[in-house]
Amino acid sequence: MISLIKYVYFPEITSTQKVLLEDLKKNRVEKNICYWSDYQTDGIGSRNNKWIGKKGNLFFSFVVDKNEFLDVPIQSFSIYFGWILKKLLNKFGSNVVLKWPNDIYLLENFPRKIGGIITNIVNENLVTGIGINTKFALNDEFGCLDIDIKNVKILEEFFNEVFEYKNFSKVIKEYKKEFEKTKDIFKIDGNLNYDGALIKNNKKVYSRR
User: Taking the model in full, what pTM does it have?
Assistant: First the structure.
């Protein structure tokens, strides 16, 4: 059972995910550690796209033992962590939704992406990176969080939820309801399977992240 996580803050960093992955592969860090910053200059998003963020937003990556989450399908960790983050932000008054499989959006006026989740697996380790526009949007195509909350507060509350939740069947059951309400908005063709995959033309489509 994970009881704590160590936080390492960087005033500026290229990418919390890239740096943490590199440090993990070189045995510079162990499990249960989180690298975070409010200024990331070379972030990565889904399918190796760049996630450019303004100073003041929240960027963090963490490594945990994947065996702590045995009921989570390997392809669905971003859904799992994304849903926990989404519910946490909702609890504090935000209207964010989770777009399959790993993006955080606001829907007011028009869909605007405010964040995303990526997960890599290194041996027995999960290395998950999350970026969220808590204060500023890059341009009009993106959005920023619709509540006023400190980045540190999000971090602390998120990990409290992650280490206590541990129930993928509950996550996917809850998310399926939101998926059905939003899939037309996001122009998603298919249905959500119990393991987090998208069923399209009788075939499973898995997230690459």
Answer: 0.92
